[in-house]
Every structure is written in structure tokens, then in C-alpha cells.
Amino acid sequence: MSKILLHGTEAICEGAIRNGCRAFFGYPITPQNEVPEYMSVKMPQIGGTFVQAESEVAAINMVYGAAGSGVRAMTSSSSPGVSLKQEGISYIACARIPCVVVNIMRAGPGLGGILPAQGDYFQATKGGGHGDYHLIVLAPCSVQEACDLTYRAFDLSDRYRVPAMILADGMIGQLMEPVELPPMRSLSEIPEKPWATSGHYGKDRRVLNSLIIKPEELEPHVNELQRTYDEIYANERLAAEYKTEDAEIVLTAYGTVARIVKSAVNELRKQGIKAGCIRPITLYPFPDNVFARCAEREETKAFLSVELSLGQMVEDVRLAVNGKKPVYFYGRTGGNVPDESEIVRAAKDALEKAVKA
Amino acid sequence: MKVFEKTKMLTDAHMHYCPGCTHGIVHRLVAESIEELGLQEKCIGIAPVGCAVFAYDYFNCDMQEAAHGRAPAVATGIKRCHPDSTVFVYQGDGDLASIGMAETVHAAARGENITIIFINNSIYGMTGGQMAPTTLIGQKATTCQSGRDPKVNGYPIRVCELLATLDAPYYIERVSTHDVKHVLAAKKAIKKALKFQSEGRGYTFIEVLVSCPTNWHMRPVEALRFMGEECTKTFPLGVYRDKSEGKE
Ligand SMILES: Cc1ncc(C[n+]2csc(CCOP(=O)(O)OP(=O)(O)O)c2C)c(N)n1
Ligand code: SF4
Ligand SMILES: [Mg+2]
Fold first, then answer.
1. What does pTM read for this prediction?
2. CA atoms within 13 A on the CB side of A332
3. Which helix (H) or strand (E) holds A242?
4. Are A208 and A88 in contact (CB under 8 A)?
5. ipTM reported for the complex surpasses 0.85
6. Residue A85 C-alpha to ligand 1 middle, in angstroms?
7. Does the CB of B101 have a partner CB in chain A at under 8 Å?
8. Same domain, residue pair A327 and A226
9. Ligand 1 pocket test: which of B65, B118, B124, B134 has the largest number of ligand atoms within 8 Å of its C-beta?
10. Within this chain, do residues A226 and A343 fall inside the same structural domain, yes or no?
11. Fold of B23-126+158-212+219-241
């Protein structure tokens, strides 16, 4: 198949459309405006629905309705807008409505800035809204992956009836790269949703609800959700490793930051330092098995998490490494992105500290 | 001789509404109208957060339970994906005119082809009688215990009048449930709205004045009288828009 040049945002849209997304609801916010703009053109052409909602709150509730009625549905936003969606996401998680939410993260907190950041990791992976629940969280590092992971997010979300999130940073939106698009999937290939409220009467009727007022019913429901998360954890953890086999210093980063980290690894190797990188692709479930395996190795002296935050994913890295090796952190915020030399320096510092200790 | 049969659009579940509450009457009017119009086979309802939260147990069709105030957005999502279905939304005044006002106004402005049943009992029933956006001037609530004072609490919102400033809505009417005559008129309006929706004519909105004897601290009969005499003063009954009759 031939490749075409696409922006990251367009690739997200194509990944969705090609896997049966036929309803999109969004609200403008930089740096993801290209997503609703693209969908506003594409959806009517393929018999789908596009609505520019009055707010992110309305958009996520339109997803609740549409996805609840059995259609593959998506919404997209950036950090402040994703905060507004959290109420709806919690209801969606409880009612077990599969859907995809895209967050092209910008710098926070508050209105923050419009440049790339990764400050929403906690929100995305630890629940975000109220109550005990999780999303499946996927983090693309290239335009190709933006397409592929969005495509996959719909299947995962349907299979487990757990909402999925594409957690990308603002750089994804700016990147333009060649992409091989997956073929358009026919809607008839998408598995039936017997639970969907698409219009049934009497004994066939279905109810989607997140009010479970009796404690003796809510606890089993929440436990059932947790069993699903356990199953997702067992089946779906995913990370890409780069030169970790003999690495003394194992760097880790997700999203586009991992690309800079990869070139830092090459530079470190050039300077004679055995470096490697783990790039989590699923952030929830977190690929702790890959970290644990590296931590067991004799050669591994230390880990270094590089993030566009004050240190969020690093907490999951520490849990995975479980004290076996020291874990260090290097981060930038405010929309600043570390360059290769900063990361090389941070890696050398980390290794030095670890060896001294 | 059979003189009455309960509509099959209502389940046999026992309704939880307080004695004298007219929420239950409105459920019946909506259900009967759907059945009489033959729309029950492809019908999706949306329950609010409020005393009617369990509406999903009562209506005998597919139901989604929405977050507080978000029902018109949920309905938009469903109806856009299933344009041939009948989508009705049932909301209280706190749900629709306070926390969900943005969703209310924008679904109306877009002219979504849905029917909204707006239950105005001028109080927050479910949470125990707090002031609603529709609480009358001077009416007592647990958060305005000496009566709603416009200097402190502002004025009640007239939703029909507000939505009638928009171009898109096809049919807007305010009805009441304080006596048999008005209940019958309410049924007529609800049925008309659902019929318009089934004909694809656009947004329809029926505000129904309902009593809340429990939180008004009145006996049921007294509450009905209060509705007829007081509520209708602040909320005049009538048709605010009917494009089928050329009423813009
Ligand atoms: C986000 C959120 N805020 C507040 C509540 C609490 N709450 C439940 S019902 C309700 C008011 C309902 O009043 P109304 O819409 O007038 O319905 P009624 O009970 O009077 O029929 C409130 C505030 C909630 N469930 N969710
Ligand atoms: S509290 Fe009021 S509105 Fe709610 S069921 Fe009782 S009477 Fe009806
Ligand atoms: Mg009320």
C-alpha cells in the first residue's frame, strides 16, 4: 500500500473513520481544532454525524447518547476541555458505553498555554472523574501510530466495554509524516452490540444507566468493572523497547518525547554509554512487566523517566521497578520540550548518581 | 365491559412518587401518547437526574439515564444516529433550567428533532425542597426559608418564553396538571409534540406544571389549588410556538 502525507490530527480522524466511527462531537480548543474541522467535512460524506457541541460537557454527553445507541462515536479536545468531559466520562465508564476520547494535551494547569505538554497523565490513567474506574489509555508517538492506535482504540473499547482515550501531546498535531492508512472497514464487520439502546420495546427493551442505588448491587457492579480492568491488564499491556538488552541506563518516555529520547540514546551510545529506552504505548494498563524485566537485569543500573510534566508517569515506573534499581526523573513544563543534549546530560547525571549510590 | 386499560408503554413497576405528586400522571400521558401514535417500537427515552430519575424503570422502551442536566445532549447524540426513532426527554426544572440550561437552549437552537417534556414543580424535589430556577417569588424553599426574595435570589425563569425567542423550535406549549380539564389538554399537547417529531418537523417542547405536595408542605388537594391559582400566574399556560398553525 502506498503512503500519503498527513498531519497527526488527520491521522487520528482517519484511524477512527476507517474503523467505523460514524459520530463525532467536538468543541473548538487549540491545539486540536483540526480534528473537529476534518470531521465536519468527512462525517457527512460517509453517512456519519458531526455536531459542533455547545461545550465539551455537551460533546461527551452526545457521545454517551450516540455510542449508547450502538454507533462508534468519538470526541476530541485538549486539556481544559478534557477536564470538563470528566463528569461524562465517569458516567460512560459506569454505564459501560464504549467510545473514544482524544486528548491532545497542552500545558496546564488552568488555561495554561497552548504548547505541548504531558500534564494530564494522572487524570487519564488514574480515573480523572469521580469513582473507581479506568480508561484504556493509548499514547501515539508518530503520525502512523496516531492512526493505528485510534483504529485499535475502537476495537479495544468495544471488546471490553470500557471507554478508551488517545493521550497525545500537542506535537502530534503539528507533525506531518507519511502514513499507510488501513483499509476502510465495512460497518457490517463490526460486532453487534446487543446492549445498545437503538429502539426496542417491551421485553426486549434495554437500559443504560449509572444509578445503582442499592449497595448490594453497586459493589458487584464496581467489582465487575475491576475484573474487566484486570483482564485488560493481563492482555493488553504494550511497550516498545529500544536497545534495552544491555543498557546500563534505561530511559523511558511516551508520546513524541520518546522520539527525542531515542536520539539521546543513540548519542549516549556514540559516547560509549550503554543506554536504552522503554516507550509505553499503553499508559493504562501500564506495561510494568517490561520495566520489571529490565530492573531484574544485572547490567541495568538506573532508570530515567523523561516527561513534559513535573513527574507523573515516573510514579508508575517506580511501582513497576519496585525498588530494585533507582528511578530518576527529568521533566520540562510550560510547553517547553527538552532537546537531545538536555536528556543526554540528565541520563549521565542519573547514571553517575546510581553508580555512586 | 372494559372501561380502562393501562398503557403497555408503562411497565408494571411500582412508581415511587409521593402521594399527590403529578409526575406519575405525566408519565402516563407521555406513554399513552406514544402508544396511541404507534411509535412504541422505535422509541428511546432519556431520564433526568431528579425525582424522575427512575423513569427508566417505568417507560417500557429503551432508556438512557443522563447526567444531571445533560439529557438534551444525550438525546442529540441518539437522534442524530437514529433519525427514524422517537426520542423523548423527561426533565425537571432544576435539571433543565439550571444545571442543564446550556444543553437546553442549544438543542432548541439547533432544532433537534426531539420532544422535551419539562416538569416544572418550582422546586428541587429529589434533594429535599431547595430553591429551583422556577421557584415563585415569595415561595418558600429550604434554601430561601422566608420565601424567594428577588433582591437575593433573582426571578423565576420562564423557559417557554425564553425558547420562543429562538428560530428553530417547531412547537412550544405550557400546560398544567391541576385538574382533569388541564390534564386532558396536557395530553393533547404532548401527543401533538410527539406526532410532530414523528413527522420530522423539528424541536418540540412541552412544559408541564406539576405539584410537589411533599416539598411545598401542602396536602395534595391544596397543592393542586396552588398550582392552578399561583403557578399559572407566573407561568401562563398556552402555545408559545406552533409552526403548523403559523404561530412563530
Ligand atoms: C452534578 C450533580 N449536581 C447535583 C446533583 C444533586 N441533585 C439530584 S436531583 C437534583 C435536583 C432535581 O430537581 P429537579 O430537576 O427540579 O427535579 P425534581 O426532583 O423536582 O423532579 C439535584 C440538585 C446531582 N445528582 N448531580
Ligand atoms: S418530592 Fe415532590 S416531585 Fe418528588 S416525588 Fe415527591 S411530590 Fe413528587
Ligand atoms: Mg423540580
1. 0.98
2. 14
3. strand A239-242
4. no
5. yes
6. 19
7. no
8. no
9. B124
10. no
11. Rossmann fold (3.40.50)
Per the structure, the complete domain to which residue A266 belongs is given by: 239-356
Nearest to A38 by CA among A200, A146, A163, A192: A146
Same domain, yes or no, for A303 and A202? no
Q: Of A201, A236, A271, which closes a domain?
A: A236
Are A245 and A203 in a shared domain? no
Co-location of A120 and A8 in the same domain: yes
Residue with cell 414543580: B121
Using CB atoms within 10 Å of the CB of residue B230, give its burial: 0 to 12 exposed, 13 to 18 middle, 19+ buried: middle
A49-52 and A72-77 strand pairing: unpaired
Residues A222 and A254 both lie in one domain? no
What's the CA gap between B113 and B17, in Å, rounded?
Answer: 29
Report how far ligand 3's centroid is from the alpha carbon of A144 (Å): 51
Tens of pLDDT, residue by residue over B112-122, are: 999 999 999 99
Q: How many domains does chain A have?
A: 2
Give the pLDDT score at B247: 81
Find out whether A72 and A22 touch, Cβ atoms under 8 Å.
yes
B66 lines ligand 1 (CB under 6 A): no
Q: List the beta bridge partners of residue A303.
A: A250, A327
No. of H helices and E strands in chain A?
Answer: 12, 15
Domain boundary among A236, A257, A273: A236
So what's the pLDDT on residue B2? 84
Q: Which amino acid is at A67?
A: A
Mean pLDDT of A151-168: 98
CA distance B7 to A342: 72
Q: Kindly state whether residues A173 and A231 are assigned to the same domain.
A: yes
The pLDDT of A147-163, averaged and rounded, is 98
Over the stretch B63-89, which tens digit does the pLDDT of each residue have? 999 999 999 999 999 999 999 999 999
Same-domain check for residues A29 and A141: yes
What is chain A's length? 357
